[in-house]
Amino acid sequence: MKLWGGRFTKEENQLVHNFNESLSFDRKFYRQDIQGSIAHVTMLAKQRIVSQADKEAIIQGLKGIQADLESGKLEFAREHEDIHSFVEANLTARIGDAGKRLHTGRSRNDQVALDMKLYCRDEIDEIDRLVKALLEELLKLMEEHIDTYMPGFTHLQKAQPVTLAHHLGAYFEMFSRDRSRLGDIRKRMNYCPLGSGALAGTTYPLDREYTAELLGFDGPTLNSMDSVSDRDYVIELLAALSTIAMHLSRFSEEIILWNSNEYGFVELDDAYSTGSSIMPQKKNPDIAELVRGKTGRVYGALMSILTVMKGIPLAYDKDMQEDKELTFDAIDTVKGSLALFTGMLSTITFCKNAMEKSARNGFTNATDAADYLVNHGVPFRDAHGIVGQLVLFCIDKGIALDDMTLEEFKAISPVFEKDIYDAISMETCVKKRTTIGAPGQEAMKKVIEIYRKQLEV
Ligand code: ARG
């Protein structure tokens, strides 16, 4: 049954129906569709556009549809074009003519614009909750690992010693920005398109401020053409989801590296790893790999919607129906990735000894040896050269800087004294880095305090 059959003489061809329909996917926001309709009819009754009795019948009918869908009593019949037609047809079947009055002063264009916004807004809140749960897990680990030493890397080569708390703190920063991005989007999108009609508003005395308020928006949108054709917030949301996916992917890549035999920094819980069908010794980091891999489809969704929107003349065009499947998929993918990643992180074992051992080797204290010389009056460029000689010497002998005797130090530069050992110990290298943002415990504690407060809101 079509909502627009009146003007048409030929029956719709099945292939056309299949190509055109959206019920198979927009059924996902049946709740938001019903929520929007309840607000709309509440406003219509307040404005005396429909009677109080019709309003009550409509609201009851709509709630009945929702209850029956949720209990499985009612199914989404394929002959309906989209969720809007489905709900309206069902409503009319239940309550008769009153059901046909629901669509007064409304078009599917402003209806779908509203549904999609409500859906995205609900999902933003859900994703925010999941990112927050990840941040809480990260903060807990940071508190535990303020003294767990590990090498910091640049170019994937050992650079300077840091702590696990500091390394995890980098991800805390990334995911905090993700949260604030979601908050910005939510704020910007939070204006209600309902009442914009097909594109040019309506002639009914609608109270758009009232429906906006009923639905928790900050106000009505101010241009009806833009209202029915704006999908910027979908683009922004997919960009934010792409960034979350990218952050999760980088983190996953590190977990995969750390889990390798070569690093041995972590051990994954059995529940978050899988075996091989042929190689009995294997314990694979599948979850981390899948989170990394799924980033592709989230980026794909962003590219798709940007491309869909680029040539659409004002106002609504059917192209926009393409916004849904990819957005739903990206949202579900990111939600799944966040939940699984947090679960994996909360059950991971960090192999402190292996991390610390790795931090002690690989000349991660070379910069501090140079700083020692600078503190004793040697110009930095010369100090850099002297430490280069120390490193060459050690590589040749297969030892670390800390293993050199004082005579050996002195043979390369007489400036070195006994206190060099303390100056270049891994603990000192970290502890001395006390400026805010650095890995030193003193600085870390201050930052953790700030993060704690951030998570309270
Ligand atoms: N299923 C449609 C969509 O998602 C609903 C809006 C239909 N509007 C129209 N003028 N055909 O965009």
List the helices and strands and how they pair.
Blueprint lengths: L13 H7 L2 H4 L3 H17 L5 H20 L11 H13 L12 H37 L4 E6 L2 E7 H26 L18 H7 L9 H6 L2 H28 L6 E2 L18 H24 L13 H24 L2 E2 L1 H9 L5 H10 L4 H18 L8 H7 L7 H4 L2 H6 L9 H16 L1
Antiparallel strand pairs: 1-2, 3-4
Helix pairs in contact: 3-4, 3-6, 3-8, 4-5, 6-7, 6-12, 6-19, 7-10, 10-11, 10-12, 11-12, 14-15
Radius of gyration: 30 Å
Mean pLDDT: 95
CATH architecture of the largest domain: Up-down Bundle
Based on secondary structure, the structural category is mainly alpha
Bound heterogens, unique: arginine
Q: What is the count of DSSP helices, taking H or I runs of 4+ residues?
A: 19
What is the ordering of alpha helices and beta strands? HHHHHHEEHHHHEHHEHHHHHHH
Percent strand: under 5%
- CATH superfamily of the largest domain, called what? Fumarase/aspartase (Central domain)
How are the strands ordered across the major sheet?
A: 1-2
In the predicted model, the low-confidence regions spanning at least 5 consecutive residues are none
Shape descriptor reads elongated
Number of domains: 3
Q: Classify the fold: give the CATH topology of the largest domain.
A: Fumarase C, Chain A, domain 2
Largest sheet: 2 strands, antiparallel
- Amino-to-carboxy terminus distance: 49 Å
In the CATH hierarchy, what is the class of the largest domain? Mainly Alpha
Helix residue percentage: 55-70%
Number of strands: 4
